[in-house]
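Work Package 4 report. The design task specified in the project plan requires that, given a folded chain encoded as structure tokens, an amino acid be chosen for each position. We show below one input record used in the internal validation round.
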């Protein structure tokens, strides 16, 4: 067996985990080769070289971003991947049951002893981002978003050097993003299953106080039928394959990393006033904590394999926690190729 190791050295404990990993591999008398990512070369080229060398297993030491960048190449090669989560959030690995570097290292040892370990197939999803510079194709595994949730990532990256990393950065960015301006989004859903889960409530309104196009009353569920476009003033639109993308609080209770469909969410807030906005978020948070996120009228859920979001004005886009930039349109499609990931069970 040959083991290829892809390392993102951004976090200090990555190299400590790498040292332990190498010791495990050497004890098993297995050949290995390592490659390190850089800002200019975030992983595609390194993964390709490890595959050309003949790696039978790729071990990734990093977070969601490192996995996202290298996923299309690794999925095409049909080589199993083992994640050692040394990033900040490690959303995908947590949802696959890999909760610590120690557990992941034990999984490496188990796999080297017997390569018939449990595994799952995680679709590699496609995102076409339309920026001022032109269209740009990207891929993602767990979460895509445009608007407020991407502003949270943007706020984290703007922290001074030394403060921009870690949970502090995410908390700072998320706090600022709660009060982000609403965006006018035109949502096209070629394939959806419904009706989406939403509680009854009054029609949603634009910031000017008028009913937003596509708003629903309590007698009409927020249904998004086939080939329909609705226009709404929203805080963010997200497509998820993970239930808890922002920590322990469940937001997408039907989302699964291995699912064929996204669970999609449009957060259609009703106010721009800071005090009222804070109160609205508190009620949304309470609904999520009680595992009833769809109980709040601002949370519009549906499922599908495709979605297109077109904005009147550009807004930031994030994919698996990586800030892509400002886009006027975001087209999302569920993946048809899959990444084989070794799991604990």
């Amino acid at each position: 067996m040959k083991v290829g190791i892809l390392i993102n050295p951004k976090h200090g404990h990555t190299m400590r985990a790498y040292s332990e990993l190498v010791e495990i591999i050497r004890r098993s008398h297995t050949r290995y080769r390592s490659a390190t990512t850089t800002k200019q070369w975030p992983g595609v080229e390194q993964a390709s070289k490890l595959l050309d060398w003949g790696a039978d297993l790729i071990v990734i030491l990093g977070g969601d971003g490192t996995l996202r960048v290298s996923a299309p190449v690794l999925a095409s090669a049909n080589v199993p991947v083992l994640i050692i989560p040394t990033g900040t959030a490690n959303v995908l690995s947590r949802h696959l049951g890999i909760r610590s570097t120690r557990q992941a290292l034990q999984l490496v040892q188990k796999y080297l002893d017997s390569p018939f370990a449990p595994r799952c197939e995680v679709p590699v999803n496609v995102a076409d981002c339309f920026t001022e510079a032109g269209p740009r194709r990207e891929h993602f595994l767990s979460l895509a978003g445009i608007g407020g949730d991407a502003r949270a990532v943007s706020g984290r990256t703007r922290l001074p050097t030394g403060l921009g990393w870690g949970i502090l950065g995410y908390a700072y960015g998320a706090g600022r993003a709660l009060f982000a301006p609403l965006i006018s989004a035109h949502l096209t859903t070629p394939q959806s299953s419904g009706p989406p889960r939403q509680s009854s409530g009054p029609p949603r309104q634009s910031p000017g106080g008028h009913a937003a196009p596509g708003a629903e009353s309590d007698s009409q569920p927020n249904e998004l039928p086939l080939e329909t476009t609705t226009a709404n003033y929203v805080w963010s639109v997200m497509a998820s394959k993970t239930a808890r993308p922002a920590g322990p609080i469940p937001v997408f209770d039907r989302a699964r990393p291995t699912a064929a469909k996204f669970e999609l969410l449009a957060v259609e807030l009703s106010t721009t006033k800071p005090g009222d906005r804070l109160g609205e978020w508190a009620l949304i948070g309470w609904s999520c904590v009680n595992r009833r996120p769809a109980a709040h009228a601002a949370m519009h859920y549906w499922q599908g394999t495709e979605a297109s979001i077109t904005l009147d004005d550009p807004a930031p886009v994030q994919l698996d926690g990586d800030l892509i930039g400002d886009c006027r349109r975001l087209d999302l499609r569920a993946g048809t190729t899959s990444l084989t990931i070794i799991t604990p069970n």
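Residues 161-165, 192-226 have pLDDT under 50 and may be disordered. Validation will be extended to a larger panel in the next phase.
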